[in-house]
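Action item from last week, closing it out:
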Amino acid sequence: MLTLGLDQSFSSFGWAVFDDAEILFNRCPRKGVLPAPAFKNLTRRLMYYRDALSDLLRDVTFDRVGIEAPIYGASFSEGMYALFQYCNEAILSAKSDIVYISNSQSKERVKDYLERPKKWTISKDDIIEAAFKDTGEMGRWVGDEADAYWIAQGASRFWHYHAGRLPREELKPFEVRQFDLRHTFTRGKKKGLTERSGLIYKKNESFFLWSSEEEDT
């Protein structure tokens, strides 16, 4: 399966395709950064990226999409959320299935891959290093492409789990927390009750099957 990962921003909009059927040099068949627009007006910049992404979706071969979810309360979070929604419009128009992957979820994946200590803070250098190691493309990555690559890889794992091709027993511990965390209470008023959290339970909230369903279902 080919999964397109998107790391959207106003300064450097990275994208990368992850091919889970390949190893090393063929694992990322295409990647890049959308050129930044010359417009200063926010609305025009948003429209530019929506249209540029629409062009990319027509040009690149992929099966599913993963996109980084915006961080609320971060720098210019209102503008980033607007960009996120314009990207969603383009993906919905292309009728592509999409899952939202948070920045912390991608960093957890990189930390696991690099086997960093528990309290290690993942940096941009770590993300690039991990992309180097996982694809064998030394010296050919920029930070936003690497971010997009790990978003794509996390999304790929989610879509395989969603389709039943990846058993829960084969999920890594951090993937269980991200995709399908379950907790059964053993005492108190909730004794015997099982609470379920994770992406798999957030259809039409954190993932959308736009290839086969109407936008409002």
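Closing note: The mean pLDDT is 90.
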